[in-house]
Design brief:
The protein has 368 residues and is an alpha/beta fold. It contains 14 helices and 16 strands. The chain folds into 2 domains: 3-138, Rossmann fold, CATH 3.40.50; 143-365, Rossmann fold, CATH 3.40.50. The strands form 4 sheets. Strands 10-11-9-8-14-15-16 form a 7-stranded parallel sheet, with helices on both faces. It has a 5-stranded parallel sheet with strand order 2-1-3-4-5, sandwiched between helices. The termini are far apart.
Amino acid sequence: MAVKVFVIDDLAVVRQTLAHVLQGDAEIELQGSAPNPLIAAPMIRKQRPHVLLLDIEMPGMDGITFLRQQMAESPTPTVIWSTLTTERSKMALEAMAAGAVGVVAKPRLGLKQFLEESRRELVTALQNAARSRPRQAAAHTAPHAARVGASGASGASGASGASAAAATAPRAGLHSLSVNKPVLIGSSTGGTQALEVVLGALAADCPGIAIVQHMPEKLTAMYAERMNRICAMRVREAKNGDQLERGLVLIAPGGKHMQLRKSSGHYFAMVADGPPVNRHKPSVDVLFKSVAECAGGDVLAIMLTGMGDDGARGMKLLHDGGARTLAQDEASCVVFGMPKEAIKLGAVDQVLPLDRVAAAILQFDARG
């Protein structure tokens, strides 16, 4: 069945070009379009498209405000369609935090040529979005009521309290602490929101975490900065040679692969270019397989929501080497693809709902 797509973009030439490029495609049905969310809203309620292709800056109502309303009233798979300049990248991240399941770069010039050359990429993004099950954004972005630390203690906080906890949590003195039991996380579609749930529930003294989240190159550094502001742990985009320490989260940079290597009991990030693996760069498999070669059983690997099978084979190697392995359950996934494939391979020790993953990290750390 063709994926029914509704386009919201204020430029008539964009809407016309999309219609021209996608017409006749058996996989996509361009169901309708509108120049702004105010006009689009009643049309969407009537037509009920499978996917929205949404611009950000539009007159009357911006795309992010509309997306929040849509996710609160009737969650619909949404792909953000944006030029990824610095300012727009920040807005694209905000849109993903509000519930968007993908981002497609839109050029400032040469739109028709770009779309004709990149039609398959756009079609794939729309098809992947149609297979997702977005949830109300409030479930992912609200500040968490408590954070748990290595001691197992938790502190209650309201909306302002959680933010204050992140701002005042002790970050000094952690840089010299090595982590002998790294935590690895792989995620893709829906992962930005899922990671916020997990990391937002952890205190500043938790085990070091290395993350591969499938994300465009221009977004990972900004995403790390955003997470660093709202989490008690320090979060940054990984650089070659970074040491993984307690209280630190390293996020693989978009467009490069990240591995971990062990030396004198310490783990160090290796960041380098290379061909895509499982169609992704960074790839979860690259990270997981690198750790399987050096960590033995002293590692926890977690597979969160995502499309495809990236990371499944690497998790199997970790599992067979004695590592602890977890996967997010289907009910809480936006896309139950990557966890499902890992489970099918026999690579997963335990399947958990998203809201229990942070506690599992602390249980692993407490094993001694």
